[in-house]
Write a structure and sequence with these properties.
mainly alpha, about 70 residues
């Protein structure tokens, strides 16, 4: 069955929303996992702070999310 252009766009938009929602919680998930404040995780992600543990957790969570939607 071939999807219409509108159906394809709707499916893509749904996938985008799901992906974004999943990524939106990444700082909170990593913060809970490591027992640190979410703003600290945000600062590490932005390059304002340095933490190999936070960076590794962010990458691991991102990779997991990417595998789900890849």
């Amino acid at each position: 069955m071939k999807l219409s252009r509108s159906s394809k766009n709707t499916a893509k938009l749904h996938r985008i929303r799901t992906y974004v929602e999943s990524l939106c919680g990444i700082y909170s998930r990593v913060a809970r996992k490591l027992g640190v404040d979410r703003t600290y995780v945000s600062r590490v992600a932005k390059g304002e702070r340095n933490s190999p543990a936070v960076e590794a957790a962010l990458i691991q969570d991102f990779d997991h999310t990417e595998e789900e939607f890849g």
